[in-house]
Amino acid sequence: MKNIVGIGLLILMLVSTWHFLLNGVGGGLIFYFSLILTIFLVIIGFNIFLENRDPIQTITWLVIFCAFPFIGFIFYFLFGRNFRKDRIFRQKYFLDKQTFVKISGEAGYNERIMEMGKHPQQLITLANRLGNSPVSFTTETRVLRNGEETFSNIIEELKKARHHIHLEYYIVRDDRIGGLLKDILIQKVKEGVKVRFLYDAVGSWKLARSYIDELKNAGAEMVAFGPLHLPLLNNKFNFRNHRKIIVIDGSVGFIGGLNIGDEYLGQDQKFGSWRDTHLIIKGEAVRTLQLIFLQDWYYSTNNSFLSDEYLMTGMPNHHGYGGVQLIGGGPDSEWTIIKSIFFKMITSAEKSVWIASPYFVPDDNILQALKVAALSGLDVRLLVPKNPDKRIVFHASRTYFPELLASGVRIFQYKEGFMHSKIIIVDDQMASIGTTNIDMRSFHLNFEVNAFLYRTESAQQLVNDYMEDIKVSKEVEIDEFSKRNFGLKLLESTCRLLSPLL
Q1: Confidence check: pLDDT of 1 > 70
Q2: Strand, coil or helix: what is 463?
Q3: For 76-84, what is the mean pLDDT?
Q4: What is the overall mean pLDDT for the chain?
């Protein structure tokens, strides 16, 4: 039934158009339109039922189809189709797995893993099994707290490139910072550096064609991930590449929450200051980040560069940095990889769980894990923005506050601009930083990438930064929060109804 809904829409459009040409607006056009729409809604509903989705998600779709048939029909095409276990990404998954298993077999680090202790050891093992990614104990990392720090370091490292530059982004803007990076890339191409740039077709839909053409004409390779020609008939529309990756000469990498655009430098009039977190990586673990990029590049272009030229470059033999593990997750995986690791981090915590996420729409597993952790006496904190950029998600997230607060979770709303960091810190020793939000889309639909840090200096820096963010945030009090007016509660509940689909 992979394409039956797309074919159905096409038939619906053709029949309606033909009937209109023969009979005009009258003659039962609305009747035929409604009849065909109803038939295909029944087919879609039956298909959703057979997919054995989460019961709440299934019921939500059926309710929407009954209450708002036409809107639900369009909404399903854009956001609802589930091809997780279909063949759409199956080839990509198996190729990724084979490559990661081959690389991980080269690392002799069992003794170092044992030295980390039981808790980190379990997380490392889980991440390795689910993500096919080894942990590195010879990798240097440094936390970058904002756009100015991040882009200044990116520009500095780009200018040092001698062999290749690989970029992969969800959003790319043709603005001041976007233009500056473009000019640097063009200059590096002139110097003989290979530049490959992968951007998401939906996230960067506003990117000017001239921007792309300038890079291509200069000799850079710039490719759209998941290009859309007929969005309503495209079964990949809902699966987006949300990763933010830069790899330079195979030895320096960047990941985190910042896309390419002036707003990430705090230059957007709507939000002002932009609080975000990025990570610079140097050494062995960059190879895993390189693999993630190269596999995405191969999926998008059918061109493979899995060779020592790109995978064995400039790996300094440093020690004493703790463990660093890069994990990519997406709809091509057999497991919900990053969500599963988050769940394990929360449920195995012994002292504290601190989370920062701009979009908080957890599924039942993560929600229950947070509540149980708080009820067990752990210090559980959630940091979210006070001001929204996506209103449906913002209002939906607030409906989870009462039950979290009642269980003992402390919730803080960041006041100084917009908070876009995606962080989890457990017991002040283990941390995750990357592109994954605590929401349904990141867990199930997007291609994401996160760095997991075990007893590193960067993990301690994230602890310090989190405490500083708390100082400029307002804690949500349950008594005050419960006094919201009825209209706001109704709006939030309506958005909550859509949360399984977001």
Answers
A1: no
A2: helix
A3: 54
A4: 82
For residue 230, the tally of other CB atoms under 10 A from its CB is 10
pLDDT, residue 100, reads 52
Output the CA–CA distances (angstroms, integers) from residue 338 to 21, 112, 319, 325, in the order listed: 52, 23, 27, 12
**Residue 90 or 180, more confident:** 180
In this predicted structure, the answer to whether residue 15 has a pLDDT above a threshold of 70 is no
Q: Are strands 379-385 and 352-356 parallel, antiparallel or unpaired?
A: parallel
Q: Are 478 and 402 in contact (CB under 8 A)?
A: yes
**CA distances for 279 relative to 24, 124, 169, 387, 431, angstroms:** 61, 19, 15, 25, 12
CA dihedral 58, 64, 69, 73 (to 10 degrees): -60
Average pLDDT for residues 187-198, to the nearest whole number?
98
Alpha-carbon distances of 479 from 211, 399, 430, rounded to whole Å: 51, 15, 33
Beta strands of 330-386 (E only): which ranges? 352-356, 360-361, 379-385
Q: Report the C-alpha gap between 428 and 426 in whole angstroms.
A: 5
Residue with tokens 């607060």: 405
CA pair distance 233, 134, nearest whole angstrom: 39
What confidence score (pLDDT) does residue 105 get? 45
Q: For residue 174, give the H/E element and its range.
A: none
Tell me how far CA of residue 466 lies from CA of 28, 63, 145, 484, in angstroms. Answer: 62, 40, 10, 28
Q: Which are the catalytic amino acids?
A: 242, 244, 249, 420, 422, 427
